[in-house]
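RETRY 2/3 - previous attempt timed out on the joint model. Re-submitting the same 230-residue input unchanged.
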Amino acid sequence: AQSVTQLGSHVSVSEGALVLLRCNYSSSVPPYLFWYVQYPNQGLQLLLKYTSAATLVKGINGFEAEFKKSETSFHLTKPSAHMSDAAEYFCAVSHGGSNYKLTFGKGTLLTVNP
Amino acid sequence: AAGVIQSPRHLIKEKRETATLKCYPIPRHDTVYWYQQGPGQDPQFLISFYEKMQSDKGSIPDRFSAQQFSDYHSELNMSSLELGDSALYFCASSPTTLVSDTDTQYFGPGTRLTVL
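RETRY 2/3 succeeded.
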């Protein structure tokens, strides 16, 4: 079965600092990987996704993630945190491409301090 | 651009009551997914439909049922509600065929169900 593990349920950074949210996956087949963001009391918004094309994926709001097969990782980064980045971030894996059910990690709450 | 519409946005029910949640996918999306997110939890896949047929099933209780209609909207029916059913229920939709590299599952805003 495919799964993702997010390391750190809570990450706190200062405004302007580097954001690094970690995600490792387990998959018996080449995975489709996603990062979603959830603001309080809102739905899930897609930040970016990896679908076996370029290993470095750029998303919205300045976020990017790099697929590293050797490390089974898909960490999310942003060079400079903004207050508006404070939210819950979920890494997810698809079982059969972009159009199959998603299995989510436990989520990482990002706090941005002024 | 049109998004996934869910109704109602908030629902309060008593234990043992029934509830019906509705989902209207993005136009021309023929696949619908339902997820349940408990308080402080990650979303869990419940069930999905493609062209009005159930395409996959996850951890959906037997008390729950769902269907997709001819206009592609979907309804999640929940009976004999329990306190533990209190959660945020998301619907997502996607086109079956990847038309572009950006096609994926698009989530609605969710329905917050509170069971008292």
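The interface with chain B takes residues 34, 36, 41-46, 49, 51, 53, 90, 97-107 of chain A (CB under 8 Å). Closing ticket.
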